[in-house]
Amino acid sequence: MSRRALLRQSACGFGMLGLRGLLAAEEARNPLSPKQPHIRARAKRVIFLFMHGGPSHLDIYDPKPRLERDHGKPLPFARPLTFAEEQVGGLLKSPFAFKRHGQSGIPLSELFPNLANHVDEMCIVRSMVGDSVAHGGALMQLHTGTNTFTRPSWGSWVVYGLGTENQNLPGFITIKPTLFHGGAKNYSAGFLPAAYEGTPIGYAALGPDDLKEPIQYLERPGMPADLQRFELDMLQKLNRRNAEQAQFDPQLDGRIQAFELAARMQTEAPEAFDLTKESEATKKLYGLDNDETRDFGWQCLVARRLSERGVRFVQASHTYRVGNPVGWDAHSNLVPNHVGRAKQVDQPISALLTDLKARGLLDDTLIVWSGEFGRTPIAQSGDGRDHNPYGYTSWMAGAGVKHGFIYGATDEFGYHAVEDRMHIHDLHATVLHILGLDHKKLTHFHGGRNFRLTDVAGNVAEKLLA
User: Fold this and answer.
1) How confident is the prediction for the chain on average, in pLDDT?
2) Which of these, 378, 420, 363, lies nearest to 93 by C-alpha position?
3) Does the chain have fewer CB atoms within 10 Å around its N or its C terminus?
4) What angle do CA 83, 204, 206 make, to 5 degrees?
5) How many structural domains is the chain composed of?
6) Residue 349 is part of which domain span?
7) Torsion of CA 440, 441, 445, 449, to 10 degrees
8) Final residue of a domain: which of 226, 244, 272?
């Protein structure tokens, strides 16, 4: 190598070292800055549609002829642990008719006539498995990977691994989260830095008409922007000086990041939640003109607006609230419960898929639909079903998954997953993989060891990847 070539390449190398230093400093200053994935990413963002209460897979996605044939007969094997041991009956056939739809011919029950138009875009996972028969533990495991400890939410892990595309909005937003069964623990950053905490928009007891100000205190105070910036800089200077003296104070560090994000949000968040910018046709598509669909329709439309503005992980929750006290938790009155709940979400979810596809966003957005568990094939209280974490259905759509595809299967009664079991750890590993994250490499050192979302388990479901 000539001396000139050596000097030229060395100079470039020193420049790259300097650039890496600048990038590291920027990441330290703003932990939400975009980060490179571990592997090729199939999707850029996630919209998680959470159905609180445990919708019955047997009455929506997983028809079982054996239940039709043996309706009323006793379960022919030992019943596993269930939540409510009393008032247990025989096998219960579905009261809802199933019909095949689309080119894929995937069967769906009459409860979801609008969603039926999208089966060719869906990857239906019929073999989900969890570890808890109670709502609290099941919600915690779905959202955080564990049913016994407070750990970071999977939305927090995603933003921790990838950052977010829009620095003026939080990377993880949860719309109207439940206050039951773990509450804020389900969107907590846990032991991760506080900047990765989920930002709640309203809460379950409020309808969309109550949320005139989805995030409080976003309006600028009555002062010029430069004066507000001066005050914030002074406050942050004091906070950082205190942080240096305290060595490390996670609460103070979180407060510093929160002040910075809040200031940036004032420039963009009000517009993101302003649905007056949407056409009347779009509002009608989501069902905002109907009392039954308005609430979840509002959530789905806001989720679309946040996603197209670069928010990495958005959750919309159909959940326990005033006027809907049990969600999908149909221990009795299965028919009126599921008919009512399905009417509330069917049109909005269909609209979300239609809207994302029309805007080209479905090509790089992963949609995940799930409850915390399914329901049993045996009756409870005569006309209901108990909790069932041993085999139930979730689905995904959009980027990274096969379309018009059924993954896994339960037994002939729909009680246990028997083919391609998808434990919640596997679901988390698969979603991270689609986003370009290796779940074994996405770790955080805490309490003397490295932790990860999937703990010491989890396998990517390669068969369902596009």
Assistant:
1) 88
2) 378
3) N
4) 150
5) 2
6) 31-213+279-464
7) 40
8) 272
